[in-house]
């Protein structure tokens, strides 16, 4: 191997080249066992050569970087490393062995640090696994996991359980406490249970920031005293198969439009004004233009098989590529009115007879078309693990947090496609026993 010994300079390191004519590397000595090694391809690196116990050894010191602009090792840094290696040799230590030992120690420490960091999500999964044999039924376990995954994981999932404090818990609870106090109260109890589990296992030492008595009770109103935000009456999600079966017994454009509203989770105005030119049959996507969206942003809707079937049926009466999909049956080119869609549900309640509406929410109010969006959200939150972002994107909800919005560029179309097929499968499944407080089959 070619080698010549001379003192180096930074400019000399930059200018040094392989002489050519040979394929093996050449070395330029700086003195004291330090060499600049140059390959036939032109790459440069630092090498420290020494002899110990009758053996010649070589230790790489990193890629050469003359002026330190590219993250490599400068001449001055290489000399410092070589000087440190010579000090080890004077003390009777092998520099290579010392470096290997230091690297192994660092890797062991990093591995220990990784193990010691227990995220809220990993602790939740550990707790659910350990309780596997104790659940009264699989649905109860699924409800626990789905609730935590939908509401807690977006805020706490990646947080070390040792660092979760009261403000972290409140960041999860405050947005839903006034809207769905019962769900929020259950969620609080489940977060408390996860953090208690972490403390028992020795993964957390502090007091539980999710405890109610003497803590959160001082800053949050009691769930039973919360004045709920007045939402549109929505059908309990467990009653959807019964409702869809009853809807299927009816005919007409308004019935088709309402079924389409339910299966796409779109707003009624978006459906009433939908036109054939917005449908991409090949991709099974309905694109709602920005001017018709509440957020004034174009929205792509993945069409499940059942929604496509409704469109095929409606297409028989289509008047042209730019015509309305669900026009008024009495006024031709005029779109259906919101009242027409509401009338479908109203007549379904009237035809059922009785003093109580058959199709009602948990408070006994007659449901309205817009409420089916809430029904879908409750179903997704209770039964699916697709994640909050996917369900919110299906509803075309705007990301409120500006920092999150800056990174939320995808509309999650393919993930939403899976979610919407599952929603349609549930809606069109064999009817089950209605939920308590919901409609009673007649």
From TrEMBL:
<keyword id="KW-0229">DNA integration</keyword>
<dbReference type="InterPro" id="IPR013762">
    <property type="entry name" value="Integrase-like_cat_sf"/>
</dbReference>
<dbReference type="Pfam" id="PF00589">
    <property type="entry name" value="Phage_integrase"/>
</dbReference>
<protein>
    <submittedName>
        <fullName>Integrase arm-type DNA-binding domain-containing protein</fullName>
    </submittedName>
</protein>
<dbReference type="InterPro" id="IPR011010">
    <property type="entry name" value="DNA_brk_join_enz"/>
</dbReference>
<keyword id="KW-0233">DNA recombination</keyword>
<dbReference type="GO" id="GO:0003677">
    <property type="term" value="F:DNA binding"/>
</dbReference>
<dbReference type="Pfam" id="PF13356">
    <property type="entry name" value="Arm-DNA-bind_3"/>
</dbReference>
<dbReference type="Pfam" id="PF22022">
    <property type="entry name" value="Phage_int_M"/>
</dbReference>
<dbReference type="InterPro" id="IPR053876">
    <property type="entry name" value="Phage_int_M"/>
</dbReference>
<dbReference type="InterPro" id="IPR010998">
    <property type="entry name" value="Integrase_recombinase_N"/>
</dbReference>
<dbReference type="InterPro" id="IPR038488">
    <property type="entry name" value="Integrase_DNA-bd_sf"/>
</dbReference>
<dbReference type="InterPro" id="IPR002104">
    <property type="entry name" value="Integrase_catalytic"/>
</dbReference>
<feature type="domain" description="Core-binding (CB)">
    <location>
        <begin position="118"/>
        <end position="199"/>
    </location>
</feature>
<feature type="domain" description="Tyr recombinase">
    <location>
        <begin position="230"/>
        <end position="420"/>
    </location>
</feature>
<dbReference type="InterPro" id="IPR025166">
    <property type="entry name" value="Integrase_DNA_bind_dom"/>
</dbReference>
<dbReference type="InterPro" id="IPR044068">
    <property type="entry name" value="CB"/>
</dbReference>
<comment type="similarity">
    <text>Belongs to the 'phage' integrase family.</text>
</comment>
<keyword id="KW-0238">DNA-binding</keyword>
<dbReference type="InterPro" id="IPR050808">
    <property type="entry name" value="Phage_Integrase"/>
</dbReference>
């Amino acid at each position: 191997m070619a080698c010549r010994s001379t003192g180096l300079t930074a400019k000399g390191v930059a200018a040094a080249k392989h002489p050519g004519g040979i394929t093996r590397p050449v070395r330029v000595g700086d003195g004291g066992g330090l060499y600049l090694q140059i390959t036939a391809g032109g790459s440069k690196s630092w090498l420290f050569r020494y002899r110990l116990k009758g053996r010649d050894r070589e230790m790489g010191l990193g890629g050469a970087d003359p002026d330190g602009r590219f993250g490599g090792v400068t001449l001055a840094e290489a000399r410092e490393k070589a000087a440190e290696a010579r000090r080890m040799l004077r003390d009777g230590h092998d520099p290579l062995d010392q470096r290997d030992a230091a690297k192994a120690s660092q890797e062991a420490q990093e591995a220990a640090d990784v193990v010691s960091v227990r995220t809220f999500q990993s602790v939740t999964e550990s707790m659910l696994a350990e309780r596997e044999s104790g659940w009264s039924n699989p649905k109860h376990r699924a409800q626990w996991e789905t609730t935590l995954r939908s509401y807690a994981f977006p805020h706490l999932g990646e947080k070390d359980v040792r660092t979760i404090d009261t403000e972290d818990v409140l960041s999860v609870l405050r947005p839903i406490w006034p809207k769905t106090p019962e769900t929020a109260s259950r969620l609080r109890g489940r977060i408390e249970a996860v953090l208690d589990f972490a403390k028992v296992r020795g993964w957390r030492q502090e007091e539980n920031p999710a405890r109610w008595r003497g803590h959160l009770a001082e800053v949050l109103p009691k769930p039973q005293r919360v004045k709920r935000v007045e939402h549109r009456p929505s059908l309990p999600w467990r009653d959807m198969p019964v409702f869809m079966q009853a809807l299927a017994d009816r005919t007409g454009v308004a019935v088709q439009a309402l079924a389409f509203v339910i299966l796409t989770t779109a707003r009624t105005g978006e459906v009433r004004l939908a036109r054939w030119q917005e449908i991409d049959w090949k991709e099974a996507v309905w694109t709602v233009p920005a001017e018709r969206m509440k957020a004034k942003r174009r929205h792509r809707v993945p069409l499940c098989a059942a929604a496509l079937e409704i469109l095929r049926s409606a297409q028989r009466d289509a008047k042209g590529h730019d015509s309305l999909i669900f026009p008024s049956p009495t006024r031709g080119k005029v779109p259906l009115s919101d009242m027409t869609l509401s009338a479908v549900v109203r007549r379904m309640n009237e035809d059922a007879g009785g003093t109580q509406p058959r199709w009602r929410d948990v408070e006994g109010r007659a449901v309205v078309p817009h409420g089916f969006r809430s029904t879908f959200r409750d179903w997704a939150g209770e039964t699916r693990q697709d994640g909050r972002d996917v369900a919110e994107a299906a509803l075309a909800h705007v990301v409120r947090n500006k920092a999150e919005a800056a990174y939320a560029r995808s509309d999650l179309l393919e993930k939403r496609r899976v979610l919407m097929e599952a929603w349609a499968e549930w809606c069109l499944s064999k009817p089950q026993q209605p939920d308590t407080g919901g409609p009673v089959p007649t």
